[in-house]
């Protein structure tokens, strides 16, 4: 029993199987006797396969007991730059919505036909081939090989199972709406350049990180290193990058200005850091994306329903529309041309006009990206969200139209 629990804990926490031996020795030091046999990585692999088979059987039984189920698929590359596709299955068992990992594997390629072959193969391997008629939904990103109207994976699946609905990931849509709204904006490009430059400037140099920490100590500042804004590009990453920028702003400026005499990169970053327009835009963007970050995290919840998503999207749009650019940090920059005690250079743009323009663009792009949620079938699923049900104190009038 102890050995089974140990290998399960290691895998759940992304630890290598080679840790199995020493964690068993640690148990012995604690007085937990569980024998000296099966204390090797080969036994650990056998235990892991037994656990996986048990979990796989439970998932299969849940699908067999459900009237419908849907699949979610996404891909990425492993450390060997080999494409790996993951499949998750979502169903309702005994009134409880469950999202379970089904499998991961390497398709022949990422073209729609090879992905279709991959999905069918994995479904058969998990003994679900006889239940494919229950498949009603397929969630994925918006790539053409997935949702292409002529040869996309969902289109190919629909040729055999006509009831399938293809759902573009709601969280991805929000990211795309945000990018569309700010695409080509000069200040946004400059701010992104600054944040990315800060991240790599300190990431690639242990010496610069050490000097920055020393600068923080001198200033009695509890700052942080720059946060990465590229990669997956989720909105929460941008928020953390902006929070880090202002939390450590005095240290960044002090250190980079000092290093600018001998380092051209530091000189360029220091100039961007004291630009009135860039810092004003950063403060403005920090406030604007706050409701979008909360929405992004909501849309990533595994128990989310279409009804919940529609409520969250509408609420976020209302909060965003009511945002006003009048916080103390903005006033300090606009009126005094200062940020946290450091003088800024250059002119400041019209904050109110820019704020309204950005908010209007974001709301417009959100409406464009989520317009299919008003379709009859998707709109009907709103009943699955209890938040949309009337309360006991709400007067509900039901009209029966009799012919």
UniProtKB/TrEMBL annotation:
This is Zinc finger protein 862-like isoform X2. PANTHER family: RAS-ASSOCIATING DOMAIN-CONTAINING PROTEIN, ZINC FINGER PROTEIN 862.
């Amino acid at each position: 029993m102890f050995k089974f629990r140990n290998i399960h804990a290691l895998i759940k926490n992304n630890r290598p199987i080679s840790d199995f031996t020493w964690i068993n020795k640690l148990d012995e030091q604690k007085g937990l006797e569980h024998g000296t046999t099966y204390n090797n990585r080969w036994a650990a692999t056998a235990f892991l396969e037994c656990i996986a088979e048990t979990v796989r059987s439970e998932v299969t039984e849940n699908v067999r007991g459900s009237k419908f189920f849907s699949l979610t698929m996404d891909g990425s590359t492993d450390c060997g730059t080999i494409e790996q596709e993951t499949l998750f299955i979502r169903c309702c068992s005994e009134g409880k919505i469950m999202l379970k990992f089904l499998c991961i594997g390497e398709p022949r390629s990422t073209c729609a036909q090879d992905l279709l072959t991959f999905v069918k193969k994995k479904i058969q391997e998990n003994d679900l081939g006889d239940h494919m008629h229950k498949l009603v939904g397929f969630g994925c990103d918006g790539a053409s090989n997935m949702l292409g109207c002529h040869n996309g994976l969902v289109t190919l699946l629909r040729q055999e199972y006509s009831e399938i609905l293809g759902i573009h990931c709601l969280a991805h849509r929000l990211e795309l709406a945000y990018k569309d709204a700010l695409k080509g904006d000069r200040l946004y490009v400059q701010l992104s350049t600054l944040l990315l430059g800060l991240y790599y400037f300190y990431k690639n140099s242990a010496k610069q990180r050490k000097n920055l920490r020393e600068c923080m100590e001198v200033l009695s500042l509890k700052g942080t290193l720059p946060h990465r804004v590229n990669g997956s590009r989720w909105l929460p990453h941008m928020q953390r990058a902006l929070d880090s920028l202002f939390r450590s702003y005095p240290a960044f400026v002090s250190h980079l200005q000092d290093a600018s005499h001998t380092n051209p990169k530091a000189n360029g970053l220091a100039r961007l850091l004291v630009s009135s327009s860039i810092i004003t835009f950063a403060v403005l963007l920090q406030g604007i994306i706050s409701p979008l970050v909360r929405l992004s995290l909501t849309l990533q919840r595994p128990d989310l329903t279409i009804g919940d998503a529609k409520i969250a999207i509408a609420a976020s749009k209302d909060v965003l529309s009511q945002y006003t650019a009048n916080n103390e940090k903005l006033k300090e920059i606009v009126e005094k041309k200062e940020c946290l005690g450091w003088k800024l250079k250059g002119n400041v743009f019209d904050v109110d006009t820019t704020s309204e323009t950005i908010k209007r663009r974001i709301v417009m792009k959100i409406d464009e990206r989520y317009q299919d949620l008003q379709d009859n079938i998707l709109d009907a699923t709103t009943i699955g969200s209890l938040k949309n049900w009337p309360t006991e104190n709400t007067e509900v009038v039901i009209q029966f139209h009799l012919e």
